[in-house]
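[job 4471] stage=fold_predict status=RUNNING
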Amino acid sequence: MLSLIVLAAVQCAAAPQIATLEAPDAIWDLAAKDLNQNGHKDIVALCGDPKSDPLRKYLAVFMSTGTGTYPSVPTFMMALDPGAGGLFWAETDGQPPRELVVTTPRGADVYAYREEGFERIRTIEFPSLLPGNVREPQFLDAIARDLNNDGIDEWLIPTHTGYIIRTADREYGIVECDIVSEVRGGSSVQIRHRLPAPHLFSLEEQSPKGIAFLGEESVDFAYGEKWTQHTRYKLPINDDNEWDVSAQLKDINRNGLPDLIVTQTKGNVNITVVTQVYIATAPFTYPDEPTAEFEAKGAFATPLLIDVDGDEQLDVMFIKVPFGVRNFMNLFLRRKVAIDVDVFLFDGQTFSTRPDFSTSVTLDAPEGRERPAFILADFDGDGRLDAMFGSGTDEVVIHTGEPERFISSRPWVTLPFKPFGEARTYDLNGNGAQDLVMFRPGGRQASKIDIAVF
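[job 4471] inference complete, writing structure tokens
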């Protein structure tokens, strides 16, 4: 009897609800939020007509029904001011759902969901580097966090010298960190800012969460009352200008402290990629020698920190694009791109010296601005990582994760979605399994959203 129940559950999970939603114009970005608190997330699409003058920007909202289905056309739409830039969600009154904050050249407008629509409840002025008058606005995920556990989100507002920490009602102060700005002259002036990525961490016997700002050469740690205490850690990177450097902060062993991952790349065709992992030994402290080191030659290798085996600790996955003759021939003659995947599992102390899993995936090459859709998530709810990628030009497939190998040899699910564009995952129906949302900004079918709910 138990085996029949398990089999029925697997068969049920393998038959997702599929929907195609369509907005009146091109979709630039989207978010999934439970606006009416019915236990199902709604789809909020950020849209615009690129040929309009002034540029027409608006939100197209698709409200989920009680059964988890979605209407094919927007439930309602809300016009945005032409000066709108970035958008983010923040809890401002302590009552769900979170409010929508739209940045403007002078600060931000705050909107609350009321009776199947958004209502502007306040306008706040503050200096910032957050964009206004943006042609293609985006949702900004890392702006608002509840740092002191009072139910109200603090906002991390970038400025020329650092980040202002504030709420909708008050400003705490500014944390100075490594913000790099560039200006280019000529017939037109181009201004660019590179902002350090914020990462939250916890300290014993301290209530406010600390913030680590990861810059290009250092990490700035802000902590304590009103985040006035400060520690800087210089990244362990080569001084040789021939190396390109990128870094990440991730809590690999889930002890509350951010661990450091540094990747250095040298060369173009004869490329060498070295990734070093430093597990934090104490707050703001990393070992002199890396905890683990990985090297790849002849391929562009991007490290991804993600829980592959469901043990709640982060593993290292390398997604590698080989620069060999065979891959170039496949690209130009067959319009195919080969990707190699190596997985190194974390055992609680370090990583294995050889890949625990290795596999290869062949994707169809996109045309124009489109890119192949590829994403990793737990779609079947078993705790292991699954993989979604394209199969041909008209379908995507999902392969489930397996203990003996990285992913299954045969697809678990095949979906009739174009395998190009942006792929996102959300738990739309609250059952613990991740659901698939795809859209294609700047490409064909730019006004459509494909959804698979498991």
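[job 4471] summary: Helices lie at 2-13, 325-334.
[job 4471] exit 0
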